[in-house]
Structure prediction request, 979 residues.
Amino acid sequence: MTVLLILVLTGLMDALDTFDVQGGTSSGVSLALGYLLLTAHFVGDLFKRAGLPRLTGYIATGIAVGPGVLGLVNEQMLGSLHLVNGVAVALIAMTAGCELEHHSMKPLLRSIGSISLYGVIGTTLLLALAVYVVRSWLPFMHGASVLAAALISTVLGVVMVAQSPAVVVALRDEMAADGPVSRTVLGVVVLADLLVILMFAVVSSIAKAVLGGGVDAVQTVRGLAWELFGSLSLGVAIGYLLALYLRKVKASAALFVLLIAFVIAEVGDRLSLDPLLVALAAGIFVRNATSAGDELYRHIQAPALPVYILFFAVAGANVHLDALTTVGAPALLFVLVRAAGLLSGSALGARLANAPSVVQRYAGFGLLPQAGLALALSLLFAETFPEFGVEARALTLSVVAINELMAPVFYRMALIRSGEANQAAAERSTGSMAPSKPLLPDSADLNAGASPPPQQRPTSD
Amino acid sequence: MLTKPRVPRSAGSVVHAALPLAAALAIGAWSTQAWAVSRALPRDDAGVVDGGAHTRGSADAGRADAAQAGVAPEVLEPAASEDGLLELPSPVVKPLPPVEVPDVLAPVIEAAPDSAPEEPLVPGGRPRAVLGTIVGLLSIMVLAYLGGHRRVLAWEERLGISQVITAGFPFVILGLVARSSPVAILTDDVLRDISPLLRLGLGWIGFVAGFRFDPSMFRGLPSNVASVVTLSTLLPFMFVAAACASCLALFSDQSVGLSDPVFLRDALILGTAGAMTAVSSSNRSSDSVVSRVLRLEELAGIFGLMFVGAFFRPQGSEVSWQIPATAWILLTIGLGATWGLLVHTILERRSEGSDFLVLTLGSISFAAGAAGYLLLSSVVVAFIAGVLLANFRGSYQERLRDLLLRLERPVYLLSLVVVGALWDVRDVRGWLLMPVFMVTRLAGKWLGMQLGTGAGQLTLAPGERRALGTPPLGPLAIAIVINAQLLYPGGSISPIVSAVIGGGVLTEIFVQLWSRRK
Prediction:
């Protein structure tokens, strides 16, 4: 029956497409929104039955119906749905912030720092080395001097290493997982997000200066400082307002939380702030400095599922499968190098930090998924270094496409094997959950995701 | 606004449910053929419409395509003239002239321009913008706090504006202020981003109205109710249409007549909106005569909107299906019925909590979008789907009713913000129409109730007479004009929207003061 419903919906979309009006109009967007919600939900069900993550089903739906394959949801519709991405990023980041409770994270801080150092920074260097070594396979590197090739390799290493907090939060919710692995992974991907943004700003500026682009160092540092500290400050202010609202007003709190997510998404772009950082700071503030953390978590979860489904489906629709045909082989190589680096680096980091054996074995899998930040950095790379053109962008987008589709499957398996799947649900049913730990909603299989659309400034996922 | 209790199903209600189903199947078969014909017409020329009656193009190619599509040649042949013109039946109503979308409406109607998104602010302007954001959020929070405060509520009561506040009109003002140039939070880009919300809101209102429409609730009604419904719908419709249309004709710098399709359409839209009544908490019970009368009035409004949507269709290059107006009516019913069946199948699957929310949101959004895509009324299509669902025996009924009830107000209020942002208050005609709209509507309603109840055996309590004689304007009336605004952005639609929104506020204040005096 599920398959039949998907076919009927797709047939209706195809029939409506013959009416031949501009697809980007508000009715076209509303149509696409409804179609993506329903179809992605059904495909997610099918994937779940097949033992795969539901969010992979949402992404697969986006790929199938997006401009690259069936074209039922066209570029204009996708462009108009970008607000959903912003709102979803803000909600996911607030969720992550609510999960980062100081007391429960304190014992894990050493592991998080060590895994970030060896796993993330180590893999960045490994990827840079791999790009440098195989530069003869990459047409856009032909003719580059040794220094130029080394710098561009480093920038590409940073672009390709990015993680996805969205997928981590989504899978954690979907699997109702809780324990040292999922908490450590969440801490690492949030920290890695900051690291990657910083590293990209630094190495791309250096590369640009050396390659003759002319960069104002003071301006770059100022921009970076504004993005980091401005985002954190605004996040704290918004967190204070959120807590105040939840304590004093209470009425229509879910609506207010949605409004906050909307403001963060819209204002973040206009102010050159990172929406993820703003929302993350707000979530962390509410959780750790006020008593409204649980309530905020509950109100975030109320509208979350539809937003997240759309988010992943749109992320899937933005995947450029066609790029694989041109740069498939090197992309696959970099995916393997990245995976090897993250798995071994995080295992090493966890071991050096004396983390539990389960963290040593499985934490690396949580670092594999990619989505919004990696996609945004790919696009920014293409904008910053136009001389490397379409091929470089195709390479990084291909890496993201493979990781976006495959990595959640591995992280899901890791959560099951580590024994953390369904732990949150079990704790909730026995009532043993600590007060500081947020309660999961009734439908614990919420799904989160990430990916800003093309033509946008990079924001984290 | 939804009614909770439901009468047990009987054979009658099953027949009621089966009838649209049969109609849908017949229409489905018919519309497939119409669709095949439209596909068979040469696509590059399909949009070139001459007076709405001629479609130029290669008839031979069209016939060949039709043969390939399995359409009998006679479907196309009878109207083919010697120079290859395919002649469609002459329209009942003259074709609408092409219009330019006003700037204020463009973000929710037109596709996003290809230009790059808004540039980030220059560093010097950022601190001010951050401060503005915080102050804006703080203001909303303070307003929300004050809105629920006892003293403020008592003060609203004293001023007689509590119903205006409850009806959500401050959200219209919020949208208006947010779009105004000094504040400029709702920029064109932002409006474009949130425009699906307006479609969803229209679909939601139609769906809710349809879902509470149970034909079995009309059994056992006093015989005189029919005349009450007819008069209390028809008289305000006629009064409002005549008076407001006359005003519009006076404002117009060109001479207009009844044969002018834009004038006729605008008058019909105004009259239809004027005939609607809010379902308030006092008349919500499905058992009361008033409640049942109001349901029937809603049905009349839906019919009115469907009629306007079918007979006054936008024409031009954006329309590719060339079929007669009556066929558009059938297509509207067919789309609503087909979608109702599909949603029934979807919701029958076992789903709870957030999953159920996703399916419901997706279903309504798809229905509203599909209707808008075909330039049909989202309210009508969603209403038909809602009626079908209400009359099917489904395990989801209670859950759906609860969800609709829970989200009805937030969705409506958010839509009102967008409505406010689209409201062009600079048009003086709208302000002049407001009192005319309110007075003629209330006069029609009051007279309709008096004549309807005076002639027969229907006896109403004073409260019921007041509810029918001086009724406030409901969300459906606003949905009707906003839907019309999306379909017909030109003409006099801007002052019509002003008249209905402003007339709604005036009516609320008047009703409040009137009932207090009584």
Observations:
- The two ends of chain A are 34 Å apart (CA to CA).
- Chain A touches chain B through 71 residues (CB under 8 Å).
- Chain A has 20 helices and no strands.
